[in-house]
Design brief:
heterodimer; A: mainly alpha; MetI-like fold; 2 domains; 14 helices; 80% helix; B: alpha/beta; 5-stranded antiparallel β-sheet; 23% strand
């Protein structure tokens, strides 16, 4: 297990380096960064001055090396719009996004996994039908619309929850439900199909022939096998919830990283965009790593592979 | 008949299929005494496995079981219900299967799976259960039993996994073990070893053993009593000596003629029974074997009951016993002289 973890860790580091280069190079693919910083009214001389101040005139590899060196020290550069270190802006914004993402993931898992187990245990039953309906609705409904519906219901018709903002835990309830419900159907369907497949295996027949109680067969013998693909999916969903929470953050006016992405693109705040791209890709790398390690812990065959 | 461990009367299993009901098991009656080895023989698809699974109450979802009597050691199994059956399974009746590669849970250690069986049926500490598991792994011929407890199924070979399955089936010292083709998926050398092991364990633990197989070679070495199944029915049953010495049903005669023997001339076609097991959907009339039977006649269309003496030898054929016996002699003669 330790050996597997170290091996996965090493490949994750290599992947991170590669991703960081792509994130770095992204700035140069969008056009001349100096020109876009100088803005529409900037002259050629302005651009030239910016080029030497920011070091855009040096060879790309050198720029990357010095940028990477600063990133490793926690310096992601200076935001052009806020005129503040990007690092401190990101820390502030990611707190809200992380909190929302973690809450939404927990909500999605708590909703989807028990429902998936029940649907897989009794396929084509009423439970299964209800779960399917829930999944179809969840996947078909746009998040912004669902968010607005909830606001109308719980903040306007029955004013029990705040409409927007992210200051207290009560502010987080509706965004959590919206974002979590969006991620739940896929997890639920995968749990269901995993359970159906697991319950038909020879080793479940063995467990039944040995008189293992059916509750234990369901919750342990079958579930552990059914969850393997669910772990990978949940990790990807979590990454998506972090990066894709723009809509939810906008509707509920939460100052999170998702919203910052959108704002920064509008403002052509290159250092901030670059830092956000880097952070989100790092999250994906870390999440995949964590998912792989959880799977290796669940399934010994992966460890030895 | 009170000393009977297993007493099944007229067991029927019907499976609902898209094409109609499939009568997988029809009026199967069998009795297994304590400590006896009872073999169920027949080709694939003749209902052996489904018979075994329905004894355990483990039929597929769409299968329905009906029986006049299903007694296990004085308990009526038809009245037990799922929770009662669960307490019997793995505890007093256990079962091992054909596929050692897939019959163990890949994500739990051998030790966990063995101890779970014991702890599902009795209040024992984990340490005691592990003690028992190590003892049994040793018993089934696995070295370094203690280390094996920490291993996962994929770290063991097929033969070892089947030994683990046997140990698992023995965890609660059952009175009856059902073995469904336990050696079919294994190498020939390992087959013989495992068979010997099963026989030794059966004597040591004083278990009844129901062995399901298509391999008459295995049966001849281990069986006390035999039931030959064909297309969902028992076509002949009796003591091993009777079945091998005096087979009366043409199907049994055919099966015995198909056993390759060393005095059989080389480069000659091995004998086989022409045709295949008929589909069981919709139900068959008359003798199920008649389409493949060399002695079929018009009256084979009638329903035929098992005849003969139950304890010694019964068969399901309209031919008188003398005629059948003469056929058997002829068939053997043909095999030697051909």
């Amino acid at each position: 297990m330790l050996q597997y973890t170290l091996r996965r860790l090493a490949s994750a580091v290599i992947l991170m380096l590669f991703v960081s280069f792509v994130a770095f190079a992204l700035v140069f693919t969008a056009g001349d960064p100096a020109a876009s910083i100088a803005g529409e009214g900037g002259t050629a001389a302005d651009a030239e001055r910016i080029r030497s101040v920011y070091g855009f005139d040096r060879p790309l590899v050198l720029q990357y090396a010095s940028w990477l060196g600063r990133v490793l020290q926690g310096d992601l550069g200076q935001s052009i719009y806020f005129n503040q270190p990007v690092t401190s802006i990101l820390i502030e914004r990611f707190q809200a996004t992380m909190l929302l993402g973690v809450l939404a993931l927990c909500f999605a898992l708590l909703l989807a996994i028990p429902l998936g187990i029940a649907a897989g245990r009794w396929p084509n039953s009423i439970v299964d039908r209800v779960a399917l309906l829930f999944a179809v609705v969840g996947q078909a409904m746009p998040t912004f619309w669902f968010a607005l519906l909830l606001i109308i219901l719980f903040s306007v018709t029955f004013p029990i929850l705040p409409t927007s903002g992210g200051e207290t835990w009560r502010h987080m309830i509706l965004p959590t439900i919206v974002l979590g419900y969006f991620a739940a159907p896929a997890i639920m369907r995968l749990t269901r199909s995993g359970m159906i497949a697991a319950l038909e295996t020879d080793f479940i027949r063995t467990a039944r022939a040995m008189g293992i109680p059916s509750s234990k067969i369901l919750s342990s013998y079958a579930l552990r096998n059914a969850l393997l693909p669910v772990v990978s999916l949940a990790a990807a969903q979590f990454g998506f919830m972090l990066a894709g929470s723009v809509v939810v953050e906008s509707v509920f006016a939460i100052h999170g990283a998702g919203r910052l992405v959108w704002e920064s693109i509008l403002r052509s705040d290159l250092p901030t965009i670059q830092a956000l791209v880097l952070c989100f890709s790092m999250f994906y790398v870390v999440l995949t790593l964590v998912a792989d390690i959880i799977n290796a812990w669940l399934d010994p065959r992966i460890r030895d592979a | 008949m009170d000393s009977m461990l297993l007493d099944i009367e007229k067991l029927n299993v019907t499976i609902d299929t898209a094409a109609g009901p499939l009568k997988a098991v029809q009026n199967v009656s069998l009795r297994v005494a304590k400590g006896e080895t009872f073999c169920i023989v027949g080709e694939s698809g003749c209902g052996k496995s489904i018979t075994a699974l329905s004894l355990m109450g483990l039929m597929p979802k769409r299968a329905k079981r009906r029986a006049e009597r299903m007694m296990f050691d004085g308990t009526d199994m038809t009245t037990l219900g799922e929770s009662g059956m669960r307490r019997l399974r793995g505890n007093r009746i256990s079962m091992i299967f054909q596929e050692p590669m897939t019959s163990l849970n890949p994500v739990f250690t051998i030790g966990q799976q063995l101890t779970d069986v014991m702890r599902a049926h009795s209040r024992v500490s984990l340490a005691e259960a592990r003690e028992r598991a190590a003892f049994l792994l040793n018993k089934v011929g696995i070295t370094n039993a203690r280390e094996r407890l920490g291993q996962f199924p994929h770290e063991l070979s097929g033969g070892l996994r089947q030994r683990v399955m046997i140990a698992m089936a023995l965890m609660c010292s059952p009175d009856l073990m059902i073995a469904d083709e336990p050696t079919t998926a294994l190498d020939v050398t390992i087959q013989a070893e495992l068979l010997r092991l099963l026989r030794d364990l059966q004597q040591e633990f004083e278990m009844g053993l129901v062995l399901i197989t298509h391999d008459l070679g295995i049966v001849s070495r281990i069986a006390d009593r035999i039931a030959v199944m064909y297309a969902g029915q028992i076509v002949e049953d009796g003591t091993a000596d009777e079945i091998f010495g005096n087979p009366l049903h043409p199907y049994t005669q055919g099966l015995i003629a198909c056993i390759p023997s060393p005095d059989h001339p080389r480069m000659q076609h091995l004998p086989s029974i022409p045709g295949t097991v008929p589909p069981l959907i919709g139900g068959l009339k008359g003798c199920h074997f008649r389409e493949r039977c060399p002695y079929a006649m018009p009256s084979c269309m009638e329903e035929i009951e098992l005849k003969g003496h139950e304890a010694a030898h019964r068969y399901r054929c309209i031919l008188p016993a003398q005629t059948s016996a003469a056929h058997a002699k002829m068939a053997q003669g043909e095999q030697v002289h051909a």
